[in-house]
Amino acid sequence: MTSELRISTTGRLGSIVLDRPKAINALSLEMIEGIAAALAQWRDDPDIGAVLFEGAGEKGFCAGGDVRAARAHVIEGRPEDADRYFATEYRMNALIAGYPKPLVALTRGIVMGGGIGIAGHCGMRITQPGSRFAMPESAIGFFADVGVSAILAKAPLNRALLFLMSGVSVGASDALALGLADVVVPSEAVEPLRRDIADAARSSHAREHIVRLMAAGAVVAGEAPFAAKADLLPARQWESPAEFVAAVGDIAALGEIAAVLALRSPSSLAATFHAQLAARRLMAVGPTLEMELRLAGLMARRADFAEGVRAVLVDKDQAPRWSPDRLEALDQAPILAAVGGPQSA
Ligand code: QUE
């Protein structure tokens, strides 16, 4: 068992604490395997009634995945090792999404990338004021993965595309508006809530008890400024990522987000756009993750992934050189083939 995970039980409550606080609990392969092993063991254990996920440290629940390691595999000529990392992570995401017992995510601070891949798929999602949610993969030449396309497929299309393509972070109220969390609970209520959830796990109606605890502890969500901005876009079926990006550029109030989109990898924008449309056709987490695994195999091998991780996380010059550097110059055929859209038939 890895030291980056604390796995324990309190009565009939299983507890999984991501414990790699120096890296904001970013998910190593060993952490992913440890989470999957604990969940697999507890699934049929009659002594476990519910499972709680939390992150150690002050900074947040989880900053993402081990994209530095995935990049190293690719540039050392072993992209299959990167494939194996993503396959293991997505299998864990599917295990969470289809889990037969109540899974509770208790998040705060940073909840990004692979962190949303855990917390977002839990059946009961509690967050706290001040939390920041994002899928920032378009900044590193990858795409919004870990099955989050399937969660956002239930949100209005413009909210989903703007959030996933831009990678900007949003607060707790917007996480509710996007369908990434269910309730916001004040930080001072968390300790008693944790005890109450452990008590509820003893009940044969644990799910109903926890739902009631969540409703009782919730504060009224405030304004959701990101969702309000996305709702300024015309409601329509976008034909291409370029058309969507142009529409964002046409609305003055979206200027900041348009500027962010202009910095993102064009390949990432296209992959994230087409993955979201595919998720809306599939409307199921398992098939969406299978689609994402094909897309991950493609995207991890493209130059933008190694370059994006270099610029953001290795050299930290924040100045990636994308190829191609414009959506207009991108051949979308390989991306369409990977997502398996009607266009690829
Ligand atoms: C996009 C990402 C990640 C990211 C930044 C991006 C990601 C990830 C981290 C991260 C952050 C802090 C750490 C760490 C990793 O940042 O997946 O180890 O200490 O894990 O723009 O996908």
Helices and strands, with pairings:
Blueprint: E1 5-10, E2 13-18, H1 29-43, E3 50-55, E4 60-62, H2 67-75, H3 79-97, E5 103-106, E6 110-112, H4 114-119, E7 124-127, E8 132-134, H5 148-152, H6 157-166, H7 172-178, E9 183-184, H8 190-200, H9 206-217, H10 225-230, H11 241-249, H12 255-263, H13 266-282, H14 285-301, H15 303-314, H16 333-339
Parallel strand pairs: 2-3, 3-5, 4-6, 5-7, 6-8, 7-9
Antiparallel strand pairs: 1-2
Helix pairs in contact: 1-3, 2-3, 2-15, 3-14, 6-13, 8-9, 13-14, 14-16
The structure holds 3,5,7,3',4'-pentahydroxyflavone.
Summarize the structure in short.
The protein is an alpha/beta fold and 345 residues long. Helix content is 50%, strand content 11%.
Kindly describe this structure.
Helices cover 50% and strands 11% of the residues. It has helices spanning 29-43, 67-75, 79-97, 114-119, 148-152, 157-166, 172-178, 190-200, 206-217, 225-230, 241-249, 255-263, 266-282, 285-301, 303-314, 333-339, and strands spanning 5-10, 13-18, 50-55, 60-62, 103-106, 110-112, 124-127, 132-134, 183-184. A six-stranded mixed sheet has the order 1-2-3-5-7-9, sandwiched between helices. The longest helix has 19 residues, at 79-97. The mean pLDDT is 97. Bound molecules: 3,5,7,3',4'-pentahydroxyflavone. 3,5,7,3',4'-pentahydroxyflavone (QUE) is lined by residues 23-24, 26, 63-65, 67, 113, 136-137, 139-140, 312-313.
